[in-house]
Amino acid sequence: METQEMINTMPRIGDQAPDFEAVTTKGKIKFSDYAKDKWVVLFSHPADFTPVCTTEMSGFAVRKPEFDALNTELMGLSIDSVHAHLGWVNNVRNNTGVYFDFPIIADIDMKVSKLYGMLQPNESETAAVRAVFFIDPSKKIRLIMYYPLNVGRNMDEILRVLDALQTSDKHKVAMPLDWKRGEKVIIPPPKTLQEMENRLADTSCEKVDFYLCKKSLNLN
Asked: Which ranges in the chain belong to alpha helices (H)?
């Protein structure tokens, strides 16, 4: 029953991101007041002082300037105390020179993990899976990724889809398979016969057929 209830209440794409207050390595945060007018990438990791998590958090930290350039704040989470977080941040900095300069939620009571479906009992009942939530400035969830405990995330893909979401919003287009910045995008298909005829006569786009047309964007 509890597992089914958790599934039913897990946030989905298009939902408003559940609000919460939490202690983090940057102090206490109320999510609805955090990062006004910015995107947020909220991500969980199973535990501090573990090898895969260290590589992942280091990846977020090293590439933080790329998230900054996309008007995006980072926020981590695990079911560890803030003291464990601080010790881990300092340990990694001393050993590798990489500094986790973004808030990491100390989710000791698992409140946020449960709100966001980060606890998945068939994987672990005491550690959050590797979840990633892409949340836009209106605090709407736009994309969700889940990884198991034993497989690290792909930072290139996280940045790619963040850029794709923002570009799609700005230009009202869709993104084809493997889209990267600078490549052609998909024009929304026509919805009426007249729009179809106009599309067939249009010579300004790359056309496979009226329903699949691509164009270049000026992203400068």
From this structure: 2-9, 51-62, 64-69, 82-96, 111-115, 155-171, 193-201
In this predicted model, what pLDDT tens digit does every residue of 109-121 receive, in sequence order? 999 999 999 988 8
Identified catalytic residue from 53, 79, 105, 213: 53
**CATH number, domain 2-154, options 2.60.40.10, 2.60.40.770, 3.40.30.10, 3.40.50.300:** 3.40.30.10
pLDDT per residue over 150-203, tens digit each?
Answer: 999 999 999 999 999 999 999 999 999 999 999 999 999 999 999 999 999 988
Tokens (6 digits) for 37: 């007018």
Annotated catalytic, 53? Answer: yes
What φ, ψ does residue 174 adopt, rounded to 5°? Answer: -120, 165
